[in-house]
Design goal:
Number of helices: 4
Number of domains: 2
Largest sheet: 6 strands, mixed
Structural class: alpha+beta
Radius of gyration: 20 Å
Number of strands: 6
Order of helices and strands: EHHEEEHEEH
């Protein structure tokens, strides 16, 4: 077990959340139109960044249906533990590395690289994360990888769009549309 280290994407998301929160507090306690408009802009910017990021992920997921199939094997598996300030907030994140051959080259890819397994990225009990790692090792999610022929370092265990991608796209659209409609006074919050 090792501790979870935030990725660059995680740090950007946390920064945007902090910015939006600070501006929301400022807009609530201030009568200034500047602070309120900055809050709207921060929401729209956050939504746009999330939408673009999600659209790129969805694009890869759609293209993966046409990628080349190859077999793989799990060469390493582990999980990280993130302990909160209470026992109930402990989280377990599965980590595994797969190895595959494509055009006489051997590649490895880790779950942190995004293997397109959208089932339970974070678990709240050690037994569930261990069961998930067993399922991956026993090829429950399939015995083939879908390898990007243009960049064989990108491969997915599952082809297609995940539920979290659809949810993230819808949430980011709300972050874009609601502030614009509020600014244009098409909707009013009371």
């Amino acid at each position: 077990m090792s501790n979870i280290r935030p990725t660059k994407r995680d740090k950007i998301i946390l920064s945007l959340i902090l910015l939006v929160f600070c501006l929301a507090v400022g807009a609530y306690f201030s009568d200034s139109d500047l602070v309120l408009n900055a809050f709207y802009v921060a929401l729209v910017f956050s939504g746009a960044w999330m939408l673009i990021s999600t659209a790129i992920d969805i694009g890869y997921s759609l293209l993966s249906y046409r990628w080349k199939k190859t077999s793989y094997k799990v060469i390493d598996r582990d999980f990280t533990v993130s302990v909160g300030n209470r026992e109930i907030s402990t989280k377990f994140e599965p980590k595994f590395i797969v190895e595959y051959r494509y055009k006489d080259n051997i590649y490895t890819r880790s779950s942190e690289d995004g293997l397109n397994i959208w089932l339970g990225k974070v678990f709240y009990t050690q037994s569930k994360v261990q069961r998930h790692l067993e399922d991956v090792s026993n090829y429950l999610y399939g015995e083939v990888l879908y390898v990007n022929p243009n960049n064989p370092r990108i491969a997915f265990v599952r082809a297609g769009i995940g539920r979290n991608q659809v949810g993230m796209a819808m949430f980011s659209l709300f972050l874009i549309i609601l502030p614009i409609m509020t600014y244009l006074e098409l909707i009013e919050w009371r």
